[in-house]
Amino acid sequence: MKALTYHGPGCRIWGEVPDPVVRVPEDAVVRVDAVTICGTDLHILKGDVPEVTDGRVLGHEAVGTVVETGQGVRTVADGDRVLVSCISACGRCAYCRRAVYGQCTGGGGWILGHRVDGTQAEYVRTPFADNSLYRLPDSVADESALLLADILPTAFEVGVRNGGVEPGDTVVIVGAGPIGLAAITTARLYSPARIIAVDLAASRLAAAKRAGADATVDAARADERTIRALTPDGLGADAAIEAVGTPETFELCTRVVRPGGRVANVGVHGRPATLHLEDLWVRNITITTGLVDTSSTPLLLDMLAGHRLDVADLVTHRFGLDEIQDAYEMFVEAGRHDALKVALFRT
User: Fold this and answer.
1) Where are the transmembrane segments (predicted)?
2) pLDDT digits (tens, 9 = 90+) for 59-77
């Protein structure tokens, strides 16, 4: 089969690799029907994730069709249309028993495209299939389901829930890329009084308005005082969600949150950020970080099937699977192409 493989910083190859096979009874092999590219894949290609070894098939998000299962698989069968989650869960360890699947110590967690071959391929082996694949209803299209593999549960769990968003809150979301937009969409489920989106790109700020942001701020022309001035009493946000992954955006979040507020870091950081405890300790600020657990995936899938989540604008560009190199080039230059999420389909 063909797959996209990593060969050191800046080097990726679309070419022939061995077909995946069931190795243990809990495995399934899935034909990839739709796949996407994540910002984390770009971090890998920059060399920021040293655990990814030469020749690894990249990717951790997909929708596909089960073509083979091990003898221990019970919840999916050949022919089932499934969501391939970015997180694999053994289901037995202490973390999995608390639904903290991202920290699985039984061989799961974030492993696809990281420690084992991933989804940017014609077929993928999925460990712990019973706990890591989700059967899809016919009413949910491949493209919409693809957003449940990572960005929607990540934004919801690590951003909105960790940020403690409540009815009547003012929420500032720094970064209006796919994760930031998904955070706007899922924050609205809690009826905040005001959502403020901050970004450098006019196209992303426009997308934030369409997603439900009440106000937008051009990060190039504003500082924390401008953002605080948009909150009802000028004291700042109840919750600030960091959805970029740079020191500057993290530090901005700590400055725009009100006393007693919460900062939820979602972005993947490749450089150290300064934590100004000399200013923060007296303000009762809570800071959370996290890797998604995907415990919310069944809930979000039900809401998507029930037309309670609007994800129509998140995918902006579409490619055939064999055009994946072109898709990467566009995603790397997302700002220049006004690209949000790209989707690639089996042709």
Assistant:
1) none
2) 999 999 999 999 999 999 9
What domain range is 219 assigned to?
A: 154-288
Same domain, 23 and 108: yes
Can you give the pLDDT at residue 310?
Answer: 87
| Same domain, residue pair 16 and 122 | yes
23 membership: H or E segment, kind and range: none
pLDDT beyond 90 at 170: yes
Eight-state DSSP code of residue 57: B
Amino acid found at 244? V
- And the tokens for 48? 């920021």
Q: Where are the alpha helices (DSSP H) in the chain?
A: 39-45, 94-97, 129-132, 142-146, 151-154, 178-187, 202-211, 224-229, 247-256, 277-280, 297-305, 324-332, 334-337
Number of domains composing the chain:
2
Q: Are residues 327 and 260 in the same domain?
A: no
Q: Are residues 136 and 254 in the same domain?
A: no
Torsion of CA 23, 39, 247, 196, to 10 degrees: -120
Mark whether 141 and 8 lie in a shared domain: yes
* 44 shares its domain with 6: yes
Q: Longest Cα pair distance anywhere in the chain, in angstroms?
A: 60
| 172 closest CA partner among 275, 266, 246 | 266
Query: Domain containing 271 — which CATH number?
Result: 3.40.50.720
Q: How far apart are CA 287 and CA 299, in angstroms?
A: 25
pTM: 0.96
Query: Residues 142, 182: one domain?
Result: no
Residue 286: in which H helix or E strand, if any? strand 286-288
Helix (H) or strand (E) holding 268: none
The tokens for 51 are: 């655990």
Measured CA to CA, the distance from residue 158 to residue 212 in angstroms comes to 19
Asked whether residue 112 carries a pLDDT value surpassing 90, the answer given is yes
258: Cβ–Cβ under 8 A, 6 or more apart, which residues? Answer: 231, 235, 236, 237, 238
Determine whether 230 is exposed, middle or buried from the number of CB atoms within 10 Å of its CB (0-12, 13-18, 19+).
buried
